[in-house]
Design brief:
heterodimer; A: alpha/beta; four-stranded antiparallel β-sheet; 10 strands; 42% helix; 22% strand; B: 265 residues; 9 helices; globular
């Protein structure tokens, strides 16, 4: 009975995924009418004496694809780690699905994490398990499903990401793009409400990267999930995002719809979009202090 | 003057680091026990399958080398006992020293050193590699507690398998020592075994089992602490693996002394 239900549900997802993506970007009004699924309020973060995030305020709406962009060292991965609960907010507030992560008890936090899926930059697949075992891991550890049901669900998720037939391979036998897709399959196996993707297109050729963008768009449509993508790939961001947040040296420079970001008059945003390097402003006293450690 | 200050600063930093690790290890142990006992109520039970897998890797797969080592230790003890007791013409009493030292000291100690080198290093390397590859982060964001999934099975498996290996080492060492002694003294193996059993008390066997259990837990915690505090990529993995073995052996020897002192008071 369980197996049949899982099969039917997943076949519905696959049918939706195989259809051409026809969704238009929602208008500003449509987007703002939706409930917030992620809220970040006045988030600061420091590694020792070095502040990495400064007063971050951000929200993500239901069914939205939000791309967080920025150069290397801009703080986007640190922000992502806060969003997925790997770092506690200190100070500031991060709310996922209306739950303040800072005030949850450990077991409540664990329950909340079952509703999110995360695909890491390098996949973070377990090297000692096959691809199918990797995808089945959350089901095996967090549910009481029968082995047969788990097999069906894992195979269907692998089919969703075009990896059917690769389940018996070890992660080391996969290409970079396949590792990313396998990682996404594992992230969506519990049918999460929120999906976080860390640099999904890094290290991929343009064709594979574009296919991954299509997959993200179709996943959003088929599974009706909100997606947060951390990326420095501008083309990819413009293709998939409903809104883009631009981070620079730990500050949010802009957070707006794609067209507004494209036409932004902010010099640093334009520098990032046009891939122009900028000399970082260095405070000589601060630089000396960091060198000497005083 | 500056060198002296730096020296003291170094000592202070290392001492703080040591206590930091001891605290972290204690927290890991408490968390392991918590997940073992309460995990099923939190819908995150410790999987018996994973414990058996670790037991197979740590214990069953180590049987050949454990047999070879304990057999050699038994022979070595027999040779030394016959030589030293021969100085007083008391070779016939060699079984006393052999039986007691094997059961109370050599079997748990040698097996612990073997497992620290063989399995402790592997566990530390595995955890370190998983930490660097973000596999531990992946577990956390899936809502799977890494201590429950990665550490508890290892702690339980080591606490169960090291006493088993020590018991096996008792048998093999006694056998090889008995063969050597009986051949040297023109007596029978049966007589050696019988004499040994008259000397050995149940308490002596429990002494060895208790030590082996303690050593097993120590090896698991030292490996977990080192593996999860890795930094610096592949070089870091090598460093924590080496450290894990060195620290495990040091802690085993110190714990052995403390255990013997407390248990014989």
């Amino acid at each position: 009975m369980e197996s049949t239900e899982a099969q039917l549900e997943a076949q519905h997802h696959i049918a939706a995924l195989r259809a051409e993506s026809t969704a238009q970007r929602p208008t500003e009004a449509e987007l703002m009418a939706r409930p917030k699924v992620i809220e970040v309020d006045h988030l600061d973060f420091s590694f020792g004496a070095r502040q990495v995030l400064f007063d971050i305020n951000l929200d993500v709406r239901a069914g939205e694809i939000m791309v967080i962009m920025g150069g290397s060292g801009s703080g986007k991965t640190t922000l992502l780690r806060h969003l997925v609960g790997l770092m506690p907010p200190q100070p500031g507030k991060v709310k996922l699905l209306d739950k303040d992560m800072g005030s949850l008890k450990p077991n409540q936090l664990m329950d909340l994490k079952r509703k999110i899926g995360v695909a890491f930059q390098f996949g973070a697949l377990f090297s000692s398990m096959t691809v199918a075992e990797n995808v089945k891991l959350p089901l095996r550890e967090l549910t009481n499903l029968e082995e047969k049901t788990m097999d069906i669900m894992a195979n269907l998720k692998l089919e969703v990401v075009n990896l059917s037939g690769f389940g018996d391979l070890m992660p080391s036998a996969l290409s970079g793009g396949m590792v990313k897709r396998a990682s996404i399959a594992r992230a969506i196996v519990m049918d999460p409400k929120l999906l976080f993707l860390d640099e999904p297109s890094s290290g991929l050729d343009p064709v594979v990267s574009s296919a991954l963008d299509d997959l993200i768009l179709k996943l959003r449509e088929a599974m009706d999930i909100s997606v947060v993508v951390v990326s420095h790939d501008i083309d990819s961001a413009f293709k998939i995002a409903d809104r883009i947040t631009v981070l620079d040296q730990g500050h949010i420079l802009a957070s707006a719809r794609v067209e507004e970001i494209r036409s932004s008059t902010n010099e640093r945003v334009q520098n990032l979009l046009n891939r122009r390097s900028v000399e970082a402003e260095v405070d000589p006293a601060e630089y000396l202090r960091r060198l000497t450690g005083d | 003057m500056n060198a002296a200050i730096r020296g003291f600063e170094g000592i202070g930093r290392r001492s703080a680091g040591f206590f930091d690790q001891v605290g972290y290890g204690s927290a890991l142990f408490a968390a392991s026990i918590y997940w073992l006992l309460i995990g099923w109520r939190r819908r995150q039970p410790v999987r018996i399958r994973m414990i058996f897998h670790e037991m197979q890797q740590i214990g069953v797969a180590a049987l050949p080398i454990a047999t070879l080592l304990s057999g050699t230790i038994g022979l070595m003890l027999a040779i030394q006992s016959l030589y030293s007791l021969g100085l007083f013409g008391a070779e016939a009493y060699a079984y006393i020293g052999i039986a007691l030292s094997v059961a109370r000291e050599f079997s748990p100690l040698i097996m612990a050193i073997l497992v620290a080198g063989r399995s402790g290093s592997a566990i530390a390397a595995r955890l370190a590699t998983m930490t660097i590859n973000q596999e531990v982060d992946a577990l956390q964001v899936m809502g799977i507690n890494p201590v429950r999934y990665l550490v508890t099975p290892v702690v339980v498996a080591l606490a169960l398998m090291l006493p088993c290996l020590a018991m096996w080492a008792n048998l093999v060492s006694e056998l090889t020592a008995g063969l050597y002694v009986s051949a040297s003294l023109n007596s029978s193996l049966g007589a050696f075994v019988n004499d040994s059993l008259t000397v050995l008390k149940t308490g002596d066997i429990w002494h060895g089992i208790g030590k082996a259990t303690l050593f097993g837990v120590l090896i698991a915690l030292v490996a977990a602490v080192n593996g999860s505090s890795v930094s610096g990529g592949a070089e870091g993995v090598g460093r924590v693996t080496t450290w894990s073995v060195v620290q495990s052996i040091c802690m085993i020897v110190v714990a052995d002394m403390l255990f013997a002192y407390i248990a014989t008071r």
